[in-house]
Structures are given as C-alpha cells and as structure tokens.
Amino acid sequence: VSNRPSSNSRYHDTLLFVVVTDTPARQSDKLTGGNIYRTAGRKMKLQAATACLLLGSAAAFSPSGGGRALSSTRLGVQLEAPKTKKKIPKIEQLKIDSHYLTEPLKEQLATEEIGISKDAYQILKYHGSYQQTAREKSVRRTDGPGKDFQFMLRLKQPAGELPPELYRLIDDLSAQHGQGDLRATTCQCFQIHGILKGDLKTVISSIMDIGSSTVGACGDVSRNVMTTPAPFDTPEYNYAREYSKVFAQLFRPMSPAFGQIWLDGEKAATVETWAKEVAHHDVDAAMLKDTGLGIIVPDATEPIYGTRYLPRKFKIGVTVPGDNSLDIYTNDIGCVVITNDKGELEGFNVMVGGGMGRTHNKETTFARAADHMGFVPKDQIMEVMKAIVAAQRDHGNRDVRANARMKYLVHTLGIDNFKRLVESYLGFEIQPWRAMADWKYSDWMGWWEQGDGKLFYGQHVDNGRVKDEGDFRLKSALRAIVDKYNTHMIMSPTQSIIFRDVDPKDKDGIDKILADHGIKPIEEIDPNARLAMACPALPLCGLAQTEAERIMPSYIERMRALLDRMDLPGEEILMRMTGCPNGCARPYMAELAFVGDGANTYQVWLGGSPVLTRTAYPYMAKMKNDDLEKTMEPILAMFVEQRGEFEAFGDFTHRVGAEAIEKYSAAYAPGSVFA
C-alpha cells in the first residue's frame, strides 16, 4: 500500500506492519466479518492477517476543532511504504493519463465505430455508462458481423428521489433511444439499456439539462448515496434524506470532463436538484476545508480524489435507527441518524467496511458486513466522512483490484486500528457508538400514511424491470400516474418504486390506473416475491455466468410450491439471486441465496439475517436448476423439526450450521416430514 503524504510535522513515525500467513481456519476462529467459509462441509483456508502497531514517541496531534485531542500515547496510524517501487497497475495509470476522465473517451466517441476501446470504456464508467454486447441474437440492437455494442446508462439519484419531470424524460428516452424498458436497480436509481453509441450524447445531455446527472453513478468514486426509501415526515427521516444529498454533493467528481464531453463545454441548463436542496450546508466549503492532516491532496481539480480517484467503487448509505430497508451493513460507510428527545439532530452512528463482491475459488475475496466505528457529532460529520474516504484513497489496495474495496483494509487492520487511521487524518478521537433501537426490515410496499396528511404507496416491481408486456403494462401505468397527478417517486433499494406525497383523494384513482394496466394489488403478491431480488445477468451483462432476473420468478414459484407441500404456506424467506459472484443483488446478506457459478448451476448460501445484519455462508456449489427441490426439501424438513418458536429460516440455518444440515440431509427420506 502506498504511503499517505506525510510532510506535515504533526505526523508520527508510526508504522503498521501486516503479517500475512497462510493458515487453516479452525472452527473456533472468529475473524472480523464472520468470514470462516465452508463449502460442502470442507473448511477453506483463509489468509489470517495479524496487525502489529509500532508507536513512535513524537508529540501528540494538534486538535483540528471538536472532539478530544489525541494524547501522546494515542498515536495515529500510518502504513509502511513499499520497500521497492512497484509499477503502477494499468488501470491506475489509465486514470492518471485520462486527464481527469476525458481521454481516450472523448476521442473514441468521435469515431464511426459502433463501440469504444477497452480503455475508453473504463473511463466511460465514471460518466455513468457501461458498454455491453448482446449475448443473444434476440436482443441485438445493430445488424452486421462482429459484436453488437450498446450502452447501459445509470442515473445518479441521491436518496433515490425521482421528480416527475425526470421520469417523463427517461420514459421517453428509453422508448426513443433504448430498448423500450427501464430497470430499477438495487442502488436506488434507474438504468436505461440498449442505447447506441451515437445516441449517448443526446441522452446524457438531456438528463443533465433537466437537473439530474449520471456522473459518478459508476467508476472508482462514491456512487449513488442510498437511504431508507420511506418518505415519512419525521425529523429522523428528513435528516436521512437531507444528509444523503449532502454526502452526494460532498463526494461528487469535480472534473470538467463531463460538461466538456456531453454539453460541449457549456453549463447544464439547471443545477442538479439535490445540490440546490442542500445549498445551505455550504458543501463546497466543507469539501475544500484543509486542516493540513492529509485529507486534501494538492490537486486543484480533484481535491479529495486526486488524479487516481479511489482504488475501487465506494458506497455510502444513510438511515434511521431501526430501519434497515437499505442493507446498511453492505456499504463502505453507513450512517445512522441520531436525534435527541426533541427530534434535533445530534449526529450519526458510523459503520465502515461493508461490501458484497467476491470471486469464485479465490479465498482472499469475501463478502463482509460493516463494523460499528463510533458516533460523530453533526458538525464533524463531513470532515469524518472525508477522512474515511482519504484513508481508503491512500491505503486501499491499488495493486490487487480484487482486494481494492475498503472492506479489505478494515478487515486487515481490524476496526480499532482502522479507526485510529481515520483519527490520524482528523486530530481528534471518534466517540463511542451510541445505543439505539434494534433493526427491523420492511420493503415499505402498499399504502402508508406519510405523517403530514399525505400518503405514500409502494409499488412492487419484479426484479426491477419496468416494462409493458402483454396485459402487464407497468411502464405505461407509471407514466399515466405521473402525467395525471404529477407524482414524485422514490426508488427502493429492493428494485421497487414508491409514490410519495399522494393526496388522499387521489388514492382510488391511482389504484384504478394500476388495475386497468394489469398490475396486481400488493395483497396478491407472494411475500417471497416481495422479499426477493435478482440482478439483470443474461443477456447483456458480460460478467454473468448464468441466469438471474429471468429465472428468479420460477425459483420463487417452485419454492412456494415446496413450502405449501410441506405445510409451510405462510413461511417467508428472504431470497436473492445473482448470475455471478460480484453480488449486485446483495445475495450474501439473504436468508437463502443462489449465486451463479456455471452454466445453469448455482452456489447455495444460507444463514443470512432476516433483518440483514450478517453475511450468509456457502452451503453448496454447482446446484443444478433441476435440483432445487431435492436440495431444499431436507433443509426445510430440518427447519420444521428443529426450529425454535418464531425462529426465522435464516436465523435457524445460521444457528445449526452447514455440518448439521449436511448430516441431516444425507439421512433424510424425501416426503417424510411435514409441518
């Protein structure tokens, strides 16, 4: 890991050595994040990391305002610089040579080719787009030989908010320049698929000119900032939405490339909606504030990111105590609003080091739930957030991209030493985590009172696909509702949509529009379908090893049939599916997950929490599609016979563990157990 600039005299000669040994994991081992993995009863080896901290004897840090100054025995952490200078990885050199995300993208967009080069594609991600190719002829957008290049565009929607004028625009753009549908993602934003290269500028400039953006929706920067989608009008929920936009503005890329490429160097017709809403926070002044402790880099264009941006993507989530509808533990940083008895904001509980992505058969990669770091007062929160990002910027693993997420830095150092590293950028200590309400999970679907005399309605969307298909015309229904009632929407972290600020007199009208377009009321949706998520996978995702979105509905139906056959008709199990191990649908937090590991085969993961607070464990590899019932029946039978009172499926499989389930399954006689 590269050394953080340490010219400031207040830094210490403090080094952190990480000793890595290849040792077998024991059953009694408890590593941070619960990453003792097991596959089919065989223990895997993990690299056990031991951190040794050597303290210097220099004077203490000078405090930079707020908090407590660090004492001479409570010194900051710096990581040891490599003894030999390594060659900069290609992707890192590409970022440097891009001139702040401009080239070779600008040059490649001007060619007559239907696609762009691999290097230009890497830079395009920062602009919110992925180059894709149709892996099936039925979804090709161009004729002729060679690959069928098309582009997916992802919006940036802090807090998931979607004004009516923006929905009308992307609805039109998807019809005129895309494949005719929209995709609600797991990161609270819409994607438009099937855009041709020649249409990209039209689509992106239209979005920017209406007060929205795609900037930073992808790439090695802070991505779309998520929050609980419930639009309750209470102090806690209002603060969660507000600070989601503050953090989005704080960590936005500052490069002029976006305006130069998509707007011909002109300014957008209007400022981003969220920027106007948080203008009173003076976010730019907070961004540029330099305490001399290494957060701000000497770079006039990107004072937080620098020329190399971050080692990998970075995710931030904000919620209120008790509401874990956004999978808060899967984020690089998770913030929980803390108010006093009067509803006044005091600060935030902050967690760090979550993340889902992993690689099959590579034990040094793993899913991880975030650790609680501490409480941060409201007047310090922006500086602390900057310090965390700076710690990852300077010490994240840029040499091995598979280990570049901040979760690996937190895992390697341990939460206490990572906290000290962050404090070394601050000059004051972070306060202890504050007690708060237990977590609960809700998808916020159906009708709810908002708290201000208005209503909100959660519309379930199967795996996020907003489309018209036969009698099912969800895309047309959404447009009809927006056109008639000028309704504001919020994207759900579970790929669904919420209509907010609904006048009670309009409730029946909205229900009628949905019914007239073939949309089932929420009461008729299988609860397991409401709980489920799947990534797009085939046919457009280049990383997909097998199906996800298109096959998940049949898995839900088959699981419901099996539950009914075993006299478990009311059982709810949180299920998720991905076509590869990257974890876009956050499968490793689910009670039951299917992770594609080959053509028509899946890993089976068990033991996630029903309230999404821990990672699951791998139970089986290479389960064939046809073997779903054969695999799940004995597990459900054991659940019937040995579950505790009111014990959820995920809690049960977590408690008994893989070995006990394997032993029971081996002796199980099919059809012998019913509830």
Written description of the protein model:
With 675 residues, the chain is α+β, with helices and mostly antiparallel strands. 27% of the residues lie in helices and 19% in strands. The protein contains 18 helices and 26 strands. Strands 5-6-9-8-17 form a 5-stranded antiparallel sheet. A hairpin with a 2-residue loop joins strand 18 and strand 19 (472-473). Helix 17 (628-642) packs across helix 18. The radius of gyration is 25 Å and the shape is globular. The N and C termini lie far apart (55 Å). Mean pLDDT is 89; it is low at 1-79.
Outline of the structure:
By secondary structure, the chain is an alpha+beta fold. 27% of the residues lie in helices and 19% in strands. The strands form seven sheets. Strands 5-6-9-8-17 form a five-stranded antiparallel sheet.
Mean pLDDT: 89
Radius of gyration, whole Å:
25 Å
Q: Order of strands side by side in the largest beta sheet?
A: 5-6-9-8-17
Approximately how much beta-strand content do the residues carry?
A: 15-25%
Helix residue percentage = 25-40%
According to DSSP, the number of beta strands is 26
Distance between the termini: 55 Å
Which segments are poorly predicted (pLDDT under 50) over 5 or more consecutive residues?
1-79
- Our count of helices gives 18
Category by helix and strand content: alpha+beta
The rough form would be described as globular
Largest sheet features: 5 strands, antiparallel
Task: Give me some keywords for this one.
single chain; 5-stranded antiparallel sheet; alpha+beta; 675 residues; disordered N terminus
